[in-house]
Amino acid sequence: MPGTLVIFWGFAGLALASALLCITRRSAVASALWLVVTLFALAALFVLLDAQFIAVLQVLVYAGAIMVLFLFVIMLLNLGRPGPSDVKGPLGVGTACLLGGVLLFQLWILRKAVPSAPIQLPPGSMARLQQEQGLVGAIARPLFDTYLIPFEITSLLLLAAIVGAVVLAKRKL
Amino acid sequence: MLLGPALFVSAALFTLGVFGVLLRRNAIVIFMCVELMLNAVNLTFVALAQRLGVAGQLFVFFVMAVAAAEAAVGLAIVLAIYRHKGTVNLQNIDLLKG
């Protein structure tokens, strides 16, 4: 188990460091590329947490589709060259530090909260489920059974998003 | 178990996302920080799914779908604002300011 923990903290450190670089880089393109590194590191963490299929989706959908969309818009708006810094002044930085610190403190308190014992599954039950039904099957079965209606509503949401994006991006409304 | 460390990393990532939203003025970078926050929540879902059942991983599905829709519509709005104002700096977008 210590080996797993070492790999986990390695990727966690990578994710946190690249997230920090993402929010501090002046150029929007550099921010986007560091965010891609964060998303890849998170995909590795998902693999360690028994969610291999989610990790594949993370790389395909997030690092692939969504970040390409971001980079496309950045290049369309010609924001690639580093301009004057867009970071707020001392007052803004102070407010951000204060609110961020308060939030981190609250989350630090929350880390002690563990799910109550009666609803917890025995350790290793997720790996066993995936062994029985397959990596995709373990997720697909409840998706098309218990969560069928939310799944169908998601398709409506995506349709609305497509129509909305086309209407908004048209030159003449 | 990796539950505790995963929740800690998730909390730190979420805080970094909030910090970025509060710190930056570039609308697109703020969007990316929102994506960072969504990913932090996804990590929480996946970590808790190990102990509380596969539903947590399903919620990550739905979060990804909503994030994709949000990115498409949001970036279209940013494009429309850029065409109108010629900038994506939030300081210059003050139409509703008194």
CATH classification, class level of chain B: Mainly Alpha
Give start-end ranges of low-pLDDT stretches of chain B: none
* Overall number of domains of chain B: 1
**Largest sheet features of chain A:** none
Q: How helical, in percent, are the residues of chain A? A: over 70%
**Which value, in Å, is the CA radius of gyration of chain A?**
21 Å
Distance between the termini of chain B: 53 Å
Oligomeric state as shown:
heterodimer
* Rg from Cα of chain B: 17 Å
Q: Helical stretch count of chain A?
A: 7
Classified in CATH, the superfamily of the largest domain in chain A is NADH-ubiquinone/plastoquinone oxidoreductase chain 6, subunit NuoJ
Average pLDDT for all residues of chain B: 88
Q: Your description of this structure?
A:
The complex is a heterodimer of chains A (173) and B (98). The longest helix of chain A has 25 residues, at 52-76. Chain A has two domains: 1-83, Up-down Bundle (Four Helix Bundle (Hemerythrin (Met), subunit A)); 125-173. In chain A, 75% of the residues lie in helices and 0% in strands. Chain A is globular and about 55 Å long. Chain A is mainly α and 173 residues long. Chain A is built from seven helices and no strands. Chain B is an all-alpha fold and 98 residues long. Chain B contains three helices and no strands. In chain B, helix 1 runs antiparallel to helix 2 and helix 2 (27-52) runs antiparallel to helix 3 (55-85). The mean pLDDT of chain B is 88. The interface between A and B is large, with 82 and 69 residues.
